[in-house]
Specification:
heterodimer; A: 358 residues; alpha/beta; two-stranded antiparallel sheet; globular; B: 325 residues; mainly alpha; two-stranded antiparallel ribbon; 4 strands; 55% helix
Chain lengths: 358, 325
């Protein structure tokens, strides 16, 4: 068996089909990558009035709080810096924190660090939460018990005495998505998410080989239940990652984002990349502005990425002029990130990825 | 004095009995099981829990009727009734119905169950991934001959998506256990799915959740998906991919990652008549006072099956061992 040769054969078949049958012969694999590529041109989006109405009005605020390592009590480090931020009122609310626990790869900063999750739990209580639950539906692996153990996130929940809910196996409820971009009339989402008073996205900042970067908005993929959509949640790719990211913002309605941008990932993220020290917690109530700001921290232009462009029209602010930064000026702390090879010129690898269903 | 091996057998029997008692307590009145305590019905949890409890005719009959009743019009199943189109849960549901019908005459003779199995088998054939539209397939056939259409393809998690190792393994197991239906069509379908799994084995053995390589990087295998694929490929025991995967799985015997992983590892190893003593020992150590092995009822059900598989019993009750070629 030679996997590489097999894949080459697939490519030949696909090339043949494209030549012979044109669009009618496009394969499901290729179509599954539509909307995933970074090369999407900034064509005008068709946005309905109902979709436009979702967008946040007014200015946004994003906090960038220095936090050099995971060794200290992160909440105590950032606490003095919180006074200038517009933080949400969680008084008497049931709050669900959603970290990134997509998969485990030894030595790679794939998941939200437990120290950041602990800080987010402390912050939720500080803001008045009646109850705090940590919930995640790992995207690639269905063995959540293993992931909780090996990432240290399970211990963090135990240490903080907060329950963990596996969103992949949670009870599910039907959500109306008729106005969505994915053209899925309904989405099945976990009851824990649907019934929470507030959901907080607690992602790890990473490069992403299909959409450029993954941060507070893309992190919500983990709210989609594996019991319905599987591991990975391939339907979200098939319907276009940017479309799915945006639909989930409106279904989940996250109240806040709290980003682990202390040790981030560059290169072939979101799994195979390399660690890169940045040293910040980024937080705010408008997830579009958080992600746009994080892109700028990586010296990326947010409007180069389709889902951020879309978010700018139907979620919130992405233009620098509309975002009030609390903390250092972005340009003074931004670092250059190595991007995935999908954002370079190696189109052959991209074609291979198509035949592999990546 | 009880010998050490007899004591171990007693420990396993006792752990299994406790797990089965735990499962019994969680069967809903209509025959279903949830993923977690007090949860909604779950087709997957119903399938695995019923398989673990299948010797109990009352439990088995209630579950068989429930599964039959929940079948969608297209012959497949969803994660719970009225939760949209048929999905990957069709595999576990079919596996369960076929096993129950094979072990209980009353279930085998039930007209609703018989109909459900017939429609379910047809659904498994129809729900594989389609890579090419009909016109493209015709062009391929005309230009490159029949062999051009003999490419590996398995099953998706959700309709219209790509094929992946786990749903393919579940559906293959549903078709192969205890043996393939007597129809050449099933043989052809399973051979394409076998091919998909065999071609997607990781470089150093075992399986990832789908790809063995992406963007030029070879991906590492996972223990869980490797065990699942091995269960589905018992009739390919002589293949290089299966041999490498078994070596990979055995190399992890000293690791204790999770109840789900240990249970499936033990099931896969015993299906190939390989020892799983360490996996079982770890598993027993993980059992909680209430008999469960995890907050997931599926993990407890699979653990109960793994404990049964490790008991010195006749081959025919060793769970998930297909009649390999």
């Amino acid at each position: 068996m030679n996997n590489v040769d097999d894949n080459d054969n697939d490519l030949n078949r696909r090339d043949f089909l494209k030549i012979a049958a044109g669009a009618a012969a496009a394969s499901a694999i290729t179509s599954s990558l539509e909307g995933c590529s970074q090369s999407d041109k900034p064509a005008p989006l068709h946005i309905t009035d109902a979709q436009k109405a979702w967008r946040k009005q007014g200015r946004s605020q994003v906090g960038i709080l220095a936090c050099p390592s995971y060794q200290e009590d992160i909440f105590e480090i950032i606490k003095p810096q919180l006074s200038t931020l517009h933080l949400p009122d969680f008084k008497n609310k049931s709050v669900v924190l959603k970290p990134n626990m997509v998969e485990y790869r030894e030595g790679k900063p794939v998941t939200t660090n437990p120290a950041v999750l602990i800080a987010a739990i402390k912050l939720a209580y500080y803001l008045g939460a009646k109850s705090v639950t940590v919930a995640e539906g790992p995207g690639h692996m269905r063995d959540t018990e293993y992931l909780l153990d090996v990432t240290g996130l399970g211990k963090a929940c135990k240490d903080m005495d907060v329950p963990f809910v596996d969103l992949n196996l949670d009870d599910i409820v039907e959500m109306d998505n008729r106005n969505g971009f994915t053209k899925l009339d309904q989405f099945w989402l976990p009851k824990t998410i649907a019934e929470a008073d507030a959901v907080v996205s607690v992602p790890k900042l990473k490069t992403h080989h299909w959409v450029g970067l993954t941060c507070s908005m893309k992190n919500l993929f983990g709210t989609v239940p594996g019991r319905k959509y599987g591991w990975p949640k391939n339907l979200l790719h098939v319907r276009g990652i940017p479309n799915s990211i945006i639909d989930l913002q409106h279904l989940v309605k996250p109240a806040f984002g709290f980003v682990d941008a202390i040790v981030t990932m560059e290169g072939d993220g979101p799994i195979n990349g390399d660690a890169k020290q940045l040293g910040y917690i980024v937080l705010g109530q408008d997830l579009a502005s958080i992600d746009a700001t994080c892109a700028r921290l990586m010296k990326l232009n947010p409007t180069d990425y389709k889902y951020i462009r879309m978010a700018g029209q139907v979620v919130g602010n992405i233009e620098e002029a509309d975002i009030d930064i609390v903390g250092p000026t972005v340009a003074t702390i931004a670092q250059t990130y190595a991007m995935p090879i999908t954002f370079g010129s190696n189109k052959e690898l991209l074609k291979d990825a198509g035949s592999q269903g990546s | 004095m009880v010998s050490e091996s007899k004591q171990k057998q007693q420990d396993i029997s006792s752990a299994r009995a406790k797990a089965l008692n735990f499962l019994r307590l969680h069967q809903g009145s209509a025959g279903w099981f949830p993923y977690k305590e007090a949860g909604q019905p779950s087709m997957e949890a119903t399938a695995w829990s019923t398989l673990a409890l299948r010797e109990d005719k009352t439990v088995a009959l209630a579950a068989a009727l429930y599964i039959s009743k929940c079948q969608n019009k297209d012959g497949g199943w969803s994660t719970e009734p009225d939760s949209g189109r048929s999905d990957w849960n069709s595999g576990p549901a079919m596996l369960c119905l076929r096993v129950l019908a094979g072990e209980h005459l009353e279930i085998a003779k039930n007209s609703d169950v018989k109909k459900a199995i017939r429609l379910g088998l047809a659904r498994l054939l129809d729900s594989r991934v389609e890579f090419y539209q009909p016109i493209a397939r015709l062009l391929l056939l005309m230009s490159q001959g029949p062999s051009s259409l003999a490419y590996g393809r398995g099953w998706p998690w959700d309709p219209d998506c790509f094929h992946w190792v786990e749903p393919t393994a579940y559906n293959l197991l549903a078709l192969k256990f205890p043996e393939l239906p007597q129809d050449g069509l099933y043989e052809r379908i399973t051979s394409f799915a076998d091919q998909f799994l065999l071609e997607h084995a990781c470089q150093d053995g075992g399986w990832n959740h789908g790809n063995n390589i992406t963007l030029g990087q070879y991906l590492p295998p996972y223990r869980l998906t490797t065990a699942e694929a091995l269960l589905a490929l018992q009739d390919k025991a002589d293949s290089k991919a299966v041999k490498s995967a078994l070596k990979y799985l055995q190399s992890l015997e000293a690791q204790d990652p999770s109840s789900l992983c240990l249970a499936l590892s033990a099931l896969a190893l015993t299906a190939y008549k390989l020892p799983a003593k360490r996996e079982i020992a770890f598993l027993i150590h993980r059992q909680k006072a209430d008999g469960s092995f995890s907050s997931s009822i599926v993990a407890t059900a699979l653990a109960a099956l793994a404990l049964q598989a490790d008991l010195d019993s006749n081959d025919h009750i060793l769970m998930l061992r297909t009649k390999a070629g």
